[in-house]
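Quality-control log, excerpt.
Job 1 of 2 completed; input and output follow.
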Amino acid sequence: PTVKSLFAKDLEKTLFEKLISLYPEKSQILKIQYRMNEKIMEFPNKTFYNGELIADKKVRFITLKDIIDLKKFEDLPSKYKEILSYKLEDSVTFIDVRGKEKQEKLSKSYYNKKEVNKIVDLTTKLIDLKANPKDIGIITPYLAQVKQIKKALEKEKIFVEVNTVDGFQGKE
């Protein structure tokens, strides 16, 4: 947990951390993950799992080609083809939208309207390519960004899972 208050410093250590320190023989590191291809999991694998994490064979090489209509993909304008590539080596794409980050007044959480618009645009294209909304997950570090994305997608009648990094942690 992220604890900002000095009064709550005792809450900084999670229950799992306490249990692991009490019973180290009962803990083990995750060995197989079932949600993402090995290109996407490369960073967390090296950073948090000492390179020991393995992608399950059902998702190891999964790409957009497995969830979209490839015939419709060929009709996309080239600017989308590059971003929504279905090659395994292109599983991770970074897009610089150069938007201005703003901060919510009450929560102090951040959002970026240009990023929100880009996400809505790309999600719309995925839906146009016949991707099942259940196969789409949008992950962002900020709760304010989650709210902005959900609101914008709802206007377009698109309902996909949108959450923070922490919100997705440990989900199926």
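Job 2 of 2 completed; input and output follow.
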Amino acid sequence: LTARYYQPWDNPVTGPEGFDLKVTYSATSGGIDDLIRCNISVLRTRSGGMYIAEIGLPPGANLERQDLEVLVAERKISRYEVEPDRVLLYLWNSRSELSFGFRPRFRMRAKTAPSALWDYYNPDLRLDLEPQLFVIE
């Protein structure tokens, strides 16, 4: 089975009412090994359950894992998973303000993976955000 999918970002998919995700980066340009903060705001007014915030990262980003461990210790997230181009945050709170850092490892002009928010038990309830361009010199 082979499938193809294309998402035009000039008309991005919007999620259902009651899902809101904002992802901002302290900088989208800089130098190798500069600390960049990723700030996330999540609001969910729909009822119940766990949901997942998938946060896109630029290629080759080294996460400050201690930031994520603090979020777990403070019970702001249940757990997290790090993938090469994104980090998945498992959330129960209906409103969350989160932040973590990462450092670019090499020069690049590349986009992050798209960021998304979805309900763990009903993945059709989903909100997608456009990838962000990073220029690292």
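Post-run check on job 2. Residues 90 and 103 are 22 Å apart (CA to CA).
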